Amino acid sequence: MLHVSVRDRGGRYISGLDRDAFTVIDEGKPQTLEMFSADEVPASIGFLIDNSNSMHPNRERVIAAAVEFARHSHPKDEIFVMTFNEQVRHAFGPAVAGEMNPTTFRAAMAQAIGARGMTAIYDGVLGGLKRVAQGGQTRQVLIVVSDGDDNASTATRQDVIRQVHESDATIYTIALIDPLTREGNPGLLRELAKETGGEAYRPRKLEDVGEAFDRIARDVRSAYTLAYAPTTRTNRHTVRVYVRPKDGRQLQVRTRDGYFEKTRGGTR
Tell me: the pLDDT tens digits for 5-27? Predict the structure, then answer.
């Protein structure tokens, strides 16, 4: 299953495309789509929020933006929050967006995000991917908010990338880098997004954090959903998706560029 974002050259999302506009190439071979949907589908969405000392200046802005994100989500979206500093903790949910009380959600976020301690982002990403895979919706989204640095994990970067390849989740990242110290690892955040067909954002100002959340929300709601059974068996599949609308416009397409085959025991 692929979730495909389509935009024009101006960055505007394109809606109303039909099945015939899409061509999926898997391992060099065209595939027959067994399912196609242009409708907004609900998702299991996890917020994975850095709770280390470096988050202190961004705390209130992140909480406010997350509450607004939930307020404008699909009413059937399933939302949960996890935080990480030296430890990975469950902070909220899962809860159905249409049934959430914004005041209760804000209070839970404020209590959970104390902004202290060191940073175990590798452990956090592994925990977030495990939790979102247990969600009730087919589409899985993980939103990582951090400076990308790690100084406390037991897991390694290789462990994280391996799990990202095995996961069905799309990862979006928001890099909050201190403009004075410039400490952090935005490269890790860009890699997580790229490997899963998501997007990486790096707000230049604190006031831009809300816009990053808003752009992620629009991207999640605007995606087309495609499914097919691959005709070739291999460990790592390379995937390309092409879109040709009836008017012949050139469009920008984004989805994950591949996946690993899975068996009951995990990745092949």
Answer: 999 999 999 999 999 999 999 99
Structure tokens at 150: 């790690």
Distance of CA 21 to the CA centre of its chain: 25
CB neighbours of 265 closer than 8 A, spacing ≥ 6? none
Indicate the pTM of the whole model: 0.93
* Distance of alpha carbon 197 from alpha carbon 216, whole angstroms: 12
Cα–Cα distance measured from residue 105 to residue 174, given in angstroms and rounded to the nearest whole number: 20
* CA 97/CA 79 separation, integer angstroms: 6
Task: Tell me what percent of the chain is helix, strand and coil, each rounded to the nearest 5.
Answer: 30, 30, 35
Question: Order of strands, edge to edge, in the sheet holding 33-37?
Answer: 33-37, 224-228, 2-7, 252-254
The answer to whether 224 touches 197, Cβ cutoff 8 Å, is no
Beta strands 33-37 and 224-228: pairing type? antiparallel
What is the token pair recorded at 37?
A: 């949907």
Class of domain 43-222: alpha beta
pLDDT tens profile 147-171: 999 999 999 999 999 999 889 999 9
Model pLDDT for residues 127-138, shown as the tens digit of each residue: 999 999 999 998
How do the domains of the chain map onto residue ranges? 2-38+225-267, 43-222
End-to-end CA distance of the chain: 17
Q: How far apart are CA 176 and CA 15, in angstroms?
A: 31
